[in-house]
Fold each of these.
Amino acid sequence: MSALRSLKILELAEGVAGEYCGKLLSDFGADVIKIEKPGEGSPTRRLGPFGPRGDAPETSGLFAYLNTNKSSVELDVTSKAGAAALLKLLPHVDAVIDDHPPGWLREIGLNPEKLEDKYPGLIVCSITAYGQDAPEDSQHAEDINVMHASGWGFHTPSGADNARAPLNGPGRFLPSYEGGLEGALCVAASLYEKLESKRGRFIEVSKQAALTSRCDYVVGQMIAGDMDVSQDRRAFDLFGPAGIFHTRDGFVYIFMSAPAHWQGLRQLLGDPEWMQAFPEDWLEKQCTPQRVALVREMLAGWLKDKAKDDVAEAAQKLGVTLVAVNTAKDMLASTQFTFREFFASIAHPVMGEARYPTVPYKMSATPAKLERPAPLLGQHTDGVLAAREP
Amino acid sequence: MTKASRGGPLQGVRVVEITKVWAGPYAGKLLGYLGAEAIRVESMGSLDVTRTYGVEDINNAPGFMAVNPQKLSVQIDMKTEKGLALLLDLIRQADIVIENLRPGAMERLGLGYEQVKQAKSDIIYVSMSMFGNRGPLAYQTGYAPCFAALGGLSALVGYEGEPPTGMNIRYADSTFGALSAYAAVVALLHRRRTGEGQHIDVSAVECMTSMIGDAVMDFMLNGVERLCDGNRHAEMSPHGIYPCQGGDWISIAAANDESWRALAEEMGQGALARDERFATLTARKANEDELDRLVAGWSATRNAEALSKALQKRGVAAGKSQNSIDLIADQRLWSRGLFQDVDDGQGGSRPVIGPSWRMSRGASLERGAPRLGEHNAYIFGEVLGLSEAAQRELADAGAIR
């Protein structure tokens, strides 16, 4: 039995943040009912990647990934009838997840300040770009804006070239995934407490705050005055020869900071003369730009005709933290991902069968499980709404 | 200082951390911020590197203080037999154990899940490692940027048509910690309903892949291996980071035609929005290099903050790309308590990173990170009920301080 079975969650969210939050709960067996606009459904249904049949309805890979194990109910909660139906549903659910802009919950009758009086047992979680109290000049945001408000954007990539624009980080939605994760953590903790207290709670997550807090090791030192702040694009960086290098079949990443790494690397490269000329503790104590440049140049030359997985294996056995820079294809072929059964096959009625990423935690008693594909639009409307009629 | 005093949904939950550096401590921190009592087990013989890195005073180490506010610290030497027994006694009084040592290290210490389960049958035991505790590559180790490389993130970050650069080198540990904390809370809930504890084995690499699930789906559905695309977005244009005065940058995203028209108006070039090269998303994507040049040429002479305000007024998603000065001055973060002052335990106050969330009946955040062994008396005396004589005996044996 999965851990969250029989808990009922209403998902009003229409973005990646709220849908990922719902997914984290539904993959543990929570009964997540997704409320969607009649006829059109969640906007994520119209975002790629699309399956081989193009962008016909019910072919969004984004929606399919974010909505496994959920039910779909078509209901316009902004209409009078829809709002009434929503109010009827609320007493039957444990939690509500939303990711509309600030103020939207109030508009549909879920005023955060009055929640406790009206629905004392209801957990409501709002995930927004800058929080419910975002100032006037922060009302409009896509994930790229949040990424660059958080500190991560300006400081990516490491070792930045000031003449070129900072980068947006991996994929389109990192701030939304992080915000959704933070929301799910708070909702799960609140559900845990509610089992005994029977009390609900209003939770509001700021995607910007969630992302910035992910750099607490650095930013925490900065706000305390222990680390310098500046306009420097490299202010978050660590120094040394770490980086990405070409191999004949892709790229590898190497990290080095300790004498043991250097010892391992000398063995890996056969201890050529140029390495013998380096002081043992140069990484920690004598890490000059000249030495870094030389190591990078020699490493690049040595790695370029190697195969990434082979060289990673040899390096790891010598204590060198060198790994392959994996693509999706590499991960699917990885013996470790396979051993942990990270990818699971799911048959979708329109998109067919495909392998999906699952969850990063193996749980001995309550494994998360992708049991059902994402719902078709309105697939569960009749069942869910009828079940609530007196 | 008792475990029921700060409120929050996890009030009354006790977490024992056998963690190092960042990812494990971050997981403990989140549980603490939700109200749990998080205890770091430490000893002089195996100090966390963040207590010693670049500083003399292990009780005022900036890195350690940044990640461990509100925690308790107890000194127990796990390498002595008596210390180990004492630690198991502490675990008997706990709900969650978090460890992020190398796979196999806890077993060798006599603290593996099966061993701990003997002492406390319903314990929730969280193992955090790069690739998971078992499997053909479980022996491999690495640091945060290695997780990002193996998990598929690094390959997606870079300038268009160039080799990947990867995300900033600091990314990965905390996200790994957050997913671990989430799984631990789900296990707590299960235990409250059934009485059953469990082992949770978290892979840092898979945590990374979870953050790009939709990009991975592209390969699963179409066999397409994504390449670096700079700051591009398939469904928005313009979408990028553009130069401003004084070395600053601004992020701008036009989510639809209306937003693009508003941007063109602000540029003083309303006609551009009707230009057939840019009138629709399809056209803008086809002419994106030219479009980006036009936007960048216009933004380069503007002030980033003023420009962001002007665009926001027109309903366009925009914001300054914040450097570290901007970040620590950001009122959006101070006003919601992400940055807040707490008691530094030395008669003063100190700013720390608080929780990213706000919640009704949340846990209070009261103090900074603990000095080494600061809570020995509380843990040994109140939690474990050891007499002073018993404590002295253990100290003489080297098991505690």
Amino acid sequence: MRSLHVEGTGWLYRLSPRIKLAGLALFSIALFLTRDPLLLFATVLMAGLVLWQAHLGFRETVARLRPVLLTIAIIAAFSFLLISALDATIALFRLTALTLLATAITASVSISQFMDEITFALRPLEKLGLAKGADVGLAVGLVVRFVPEVINRYETLRDAHRARGMKVRLHTILVPLIIMTLKDADAIADAIDARGFRGQTSSPDI
Amino acid sequence: MKTRDLVLISLFSAIIIALGLLPPLPLGFIPVPITAQSLGVMLAGVVLGAKRGTLTVLLTILIAAIGLPVLSGGRGGLSIFYTPTTGYLIGWIAAAFTTGYLSERLVNRDQSPLTQGFGFFLASVAGGVIVLYAFGITYLGFATGIGFSKAFVGSMAFIPGDVLKAVLAALAGRAVMAGYPLLPQRA
């Protein structure tokens, strides 16, 4: 699985990830404070400029924006029919500006930087004993490791269907896929504990 | 949290992500292929229960947010929080919790298979349709400015498909309960 992060050198990449994420959050709140279409159009241009600074290249930028902008375009088309043109334009500009800026931030923050920020954000919860930042990192790592495994299993099941002349149906493939995958949990959990990844001793529940 | 629960949550999150990456599969009794990712959310509640199911969905959204293109159609990154349909994504969390909570209360191992299946179906509809659409429609109406009632009418078209997914989640949930029960051992 390829991350959406790219290596880059511009000012956008040098800026601290915490500032970028906080900036995006503030930007998303600020956009809902104004209803001036001109001002909102200016924010779209500004977000576009930031995205251009991510130096993704034209083709890559379009490929990344397509799925989200398609949803926005379809819903914008409907809202022009349903509500006044001014309201529809305001909504369209807001969502487009946010999409552009979010895409730029995503490209410029690496997975490990994100994990550091999540661990930082979890610190208050960790002090209360409600969550462990290290567990989140471990879980993300496990998921990235096991998605290809699940897809392999799906392909095995699909071949098994074909070998028996059955059509591949969701309801016949889902149950064996889930049971086969989850049955590994005990072995994986034992392997994690045996290596002491979670820093616990022999007591099983911490 | 036990390591085993952490692993179960991660594995199920991998299943939800894989369901979004696989080509859409036909259901068997209807010709239209469906994307199965929202089915995975109901399944998380049905198979793992409220706490682990909710954490599974949270983990999946987190992985999408930090820039891995794991949502169906290859979507990912922070922009997933800024589309008109973001309410449905946030609704996944409440949907998995509701489905899981009701599954824990409505279904136990001593019931007949039919009762179990029906209990799972009710839980999946309550979480994966009613609660999910409550979030999705409210946000859609708010973000686009079209208002609640118009967003409600516009979303109606997708409900039959999601009810079918609830049927599928119930069948699968029952089969997993029979083959590898996890729901009774609550996290």
